[in-house]
Every structure is written in C-alpha cells, then in structure tokens.
Amino acid sequence: MKIVIAPDSFKESLTALEVAQSIEGGFRRIFPDAQYIKVPMADGGEGSVQSLIDATKGELLEVKVTAPLGNKATGFLGVSGDKQTAFIEMAAASGLHLVPFEQRNPLKTTSFGTGELIKKALDLGVKKILLGIGGSATNDGGVGMLQALGASFKNAAGEEIGFGGEQLQQISQISLENLDPRLQSVEFEVACDVNNPLCGERGASAVFGPQKGATPEMVQTLDNALAHFADIALAQQGIAIANHAGAGAAGGMGGGLLLLPNVQLKAGVQIIIEATRLAEHIQDADLVITGEGRMDAQSIAGKTPVGVAKTAKQFGVPVIAIVGCLREDYNVVYQHGIDAVFPIIRQLNSLEETLKQGRENLESSAENVARLIKLKM
User: Fold this and answer.
1) Which of 77, 124, 358, 363 reaches 20 to 30 Å from 210, CA-CA?
2) Are strands 263-266 and 287-290 parallel, antiparallel or unpaired?
3) C-alpha atoms less than 13 angstroms from C-alpha of 314 in its C-beta half-sphere
4) Nearest CA among 235, 238, 222 for reference residue 109
C-alpha cells in the first residue's frame, strides 16, 4: 500500500514536515509495511519556504534586510536542493511581525527588504523564483521592493521618493531603465490568493490596511496614493495595474510586481503543488492524507487540503484530512474532494462546554467514520 502524506503546518504548533512525520508514525503502528511518501505542503503564506525546503531537500539562507520601518533585520529565503529555484516569503523581510504593535503605520512602512531577498536570489543564479506575498506590514504598492531592484520613482523635484505608502502621492516619474537585468532571465511565480484590485472599496488599503494599523483617514490617503501610482504606471510605462485581479494583495505588492518582467500571479497552493511534483507522487497512490490546523468553510478558498484533494481526485485516489480542530461550517469540504475528516480535537473549550457539545461531537465523528467505511465498499 502506498500512502502519500501531504499536510499543511499546524500554525504555532508543528511544521508541515513535523505533521507529516506524526501522521506516518501513527499509521505505521497499524500498517508497518506500507510505503509512505511525505510531501510537506503550504498555500504560499507563512511556512511555505520551510515546506518547499523540506520537500526539495533544499536549504535555508539568512539574509540581512531592510525591515518595514527602515531598520535592519535578519530575513531568510530558501533554495531548492538542485539550486535552481529560490523560495521567498515576503513576510520574512516585510512582515507585520517585524513591526511593534504601537509602531504599525502603513503610511511609513516599506517593502524594500523583499526586493533585497529577490536580489539575493538572483545572486545565487537561480532560474526560478517562487514568492509568497502574505503577512505584510506594508501598503506601498511594492514600490520599496522595486526600488531595491533598481527601479526609480522620482518626485516633481527630481528626487527619489522615500519609504512608505504615503510617499506614492509624490511620484512624478517612474523609470524601469536600471532594473536588475537578471530579472529578464528568471521565471517568477507569485503566490497570490486574493483577487482584490489595487484601489477602491475592495482594494489593498480598504480591505487590508486596518490590520496593519491604518485609521480610516490613513486608508483614504493610502488608497489615493495607490491610485496615483497606478495612473503614472499606466501613463508612463503602459502597464495597467489598477484593476488587475490580485493587484491589491499585500498592500498592493501584487500590483507592483506587475512592473517586473516574467511575473505570473497564481494561486499559492497550486504553486506549491507544482513545485513539489505532488501529482507524480499521488498518481499511483492508494490513499492520500492531508491536514491543517483548523478546517472550516474557508478551507475551500485556496487552502492546502482542498488543493491536495483536487489533485488526488484527478487519479481517483481517496483523501482523508486529519486536522487540529473544526468549525461548524467545515463539512463543505466534502463537496471539494475530501472524503473524511478527523479532528484531533474539535475545539478548545472548558469541560462544561465540551460536555454540552457531546451530541454534536459524537455525530460528527460518527459521520466521519461512516465516510471512511464507505471508501472501502
């Protein structure tokens, strides 16, 4: 029997590889002679670099970078075992966790450090870059990232604009003439799991700005600044970014990346599936096991387990999900390729609340057991 184990991490508990190892350990007690293939997964967000390193037998490299507030910090990127692909998480250099809560202000934060990670990847001579753009502290449209790679954004006085989302209002001239020429020869895939436009009520500032510290007044300033940036990019470079699906991701980083050559915005989990060659592992498997920390209705919106399940269903392979806990709306995943779900806990509650939920917990578990039995009928 061949079993492919392809889970996401359980955030703040276990990496994806540790989850896979734990699942294998439990299964080996019952099926000691089965063939187990562990494929650590992610969806392009936090933990993606580690998952890809583990899956490709690569290595992690630390890099000194410019943090969101302009101070120096230690970031990281991954390199595949064959040295051909670099794995980058924007959050490693420009993440919200790098900014103390009381200093969070997207008018001031920059994505320059993410550009430095990209530049380091180019220094390594890779042929492909995979970039995840979740968890950012910035709302600068990726302008800081572009500056680190050689692009120029000058104000009316002919001076380079400073760091931060509010500075985009000052852009008078965009020049891509001195962009790092090595960008022309690499394939560049960006894990982008939202389709928000750059501006407006569904744009970067309105939807994601508040979680980065933006007040309602800041949101309006940032939205106007991004709109101005988009207008100049279209007028001077002929690149339309304002309404491109995903342009609003990561404070407009999705839009800024469109100014680079060879960039594709793709679903994060699909990038990981392709990079780990998951389909090749699954095609002759008897069972696939996936999982994540919490399964709910949002799991069908680009999360790892459903991406894994869709891949498995191409080959008619049954899929079990083992998850940390469940929310009431989780059962929608049964319509998206997952055959049975088993929580290691249903949810964290007091003993009193757990006792009150005995019936629904029992029914949920019974349903899942029945689904598993049905797989063998």
Assistant:
1) 77
2) unpaired
3) 12
4) 222
Alpha carbon 338 to its chain centroid, in Å, reads 22
Give the per-residue pLDDT at 186. 97
Query: What is the average per-residue pLDDT within 110-118?
Result: 98
Task: Report the distance separating Cα 109 and Cα 103, nearest Å.
Answer: 10
Q: CA-based diameter of the chain, in Å? A: 75
Q: Are 337 and 309 in contact (CB under 8 A)?
A: yes
Phi/psi-derived region of residue 374, left when phi > 0, alpha when psi is between -120 and 50, beta in every other case: alpha
The number of angstroms, rounded, from the C-alpha of 111 to the middle of its chain's C-alpha atoms is 16
CA 368 to chain centre: 29
Mean pLDDT is lowest, of 105-109, 120-124, 338-342, for: 338-342
Q: Is 9 helix (H, G, I), strand (E, B) or coil?
A: coil
348 token code pair: 């964290």
Give the chain's end-to-end CA distance (angstroms, integer): 17
Cα–Cα distances in angstroms (integers) from residue 314 to residues 196, 221, 278, 279, 308, in the given order: 29, 47, 12, 9, 10
CA dist., res. 65 & res. 63, Å (int): 6
Dig out the tokens for 300 from the structure: 């069908």
Whether 92 has a pLDDT exceeding 90, the answer reads yes
Structure tokens at 77: 């990127």
Q: Positive or negative CA dihedral for 218, 221, 223, 229?
A: negative
* Amino acid residing at 140: D
Cβ 349 vs Cβ 325: under 8 Å:
no
Residue 87 has phi, psi (to 5 degrees) of -115, 125
pTM of the model as a whole: 0.83
* Residue 277 φ/ψ, nearest 5 degrees: 55, 45
* Amino acid symbol at 367: E
**Would you give the DSSP letter of residue 27?**
H
Residue labelled with tokens 């063998």:
376
Mean pLDDT of the chain: 92
Q: What is the pLDDT of residue 328?
A: 86
